[in-house]
Design goal:
This protein is α+β, with helices and mostly antiparallel strands. Helix content is 28%, strand content 37%. A hairpin with a 2-residue loop joins strand 1 and strand 2. The model has no long low-confidence stretch (mean pLDDT 95).
């Protein structure tokens, strides 16, 4: 099964997450199929905190990829900001 989830990056105490499409059996920060965007939880007011490639997200959902609950929440946040 293919899932859309967060892969952690960044340094200690400075988290940065990539939104990736990966096989469910792989490790959280392991191999992934495609990077769809990023989430920066500690972004300042003048920095972009979330970016998602909507066209690729739509494609992966159409072929059966399921998003994790956290990614679902981030997608809805990004949609609210865009509107």
């Amino acid at each position: 099964m293919v899932v859309i989830r967060l892969a952690r990056g960044g340094a200690k105490a400075r988290p940065f997450f990539n939104i990736v499409v990966a096989d469910k059996r792989t490790r959280r920060d392991g191999r992934f199929i495609e990077r769809l965007g990023f989430y920066n939880p500690i972004a300042t007011a003048n920095e972009e905190s979330i970016r998602i490639a909507q066209d690729r997200l739509t494609y992966w959902r159409s072929v059966g990829a399921q998003a994790s609950p956290t990614v679902e929440r981030l997608i809805s946040q990004a949609a609210k900001k865009a509107a």
